Amino acid sequence: MPKDQEYQPLINNPTDDGVPPPSKPAWTSHFSRTVLAGLLIVESIALAATIFALFSRVPPASYTVALDSQRVLYSPALEAVEHEVQVYHVGFASDLSPFQIPSSPALDRMWSELYNFGISRITKDEAARLPNKTHAIPGDDGHYIAELDVFHNLHCLNKIRMALDPDYYPDWRISTSNNYIPTQTNATEHVAHCVDWIRQSMMCNGDTSVIVWQWQDFQNTTMVKGNVAHTCRKFDKIQDWAKGHRLQNEYDPTVHIEDDIVVPILHNQIP
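Structure tokens predicted for Tat pathway signal sequence (271 residues):
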């Protein structure tokens, strides 16, 4: 607490020279103790009343809460989060992942199976707890549409992958300053969006796992080692959650449904 609010001793200690202070008449000591007790009772009642007033206050509908560094925003999929330790594939010839194969229907299928169930349906109660408002699903009473951001990230990364092989995916050939292609404007804007979205996501979820350097006798030098341990959320658990919350019918974005869900202003500023 601030220095000017710190408690001070009510009675001074004896002097340092060992000589006790002069004694006071008994009636004076009794009177002082009575006054002191009365003051303490009054202060205790006032403190209790203040605490009660603070905790019984009902916030208005537009109440905002400042986010601190440790706050986790609500997600209905938090129930599916489990952690595990994983070591990434380094991605070079001696340690390729199953996804490092040439563009093909097989590769497209592998990518699609990562996130093709990513649009979810959640209950109204879950929707009401989100930090941003979402829309009801027409024809599916009591349910609202949602998507976990990890599946949007995977969608974006897949589009970037496709743009890197325009001979196989001509619809995703992007236009650059040296290669302007008017018909590819949508692909170019989409990929630019995806690159920056993934940048923001990586910065938001900053992985603090530590890459190391180790001595290599055969090269007489230290070399960077990427095959290190990472603390990861079990992706299959999040996939299971999403598969269990798939849309039951095709979503019609042209139907507007009014509801009574109100979210805090702080988290409802995003269109």
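The chain has a mean pLDDT of 81.
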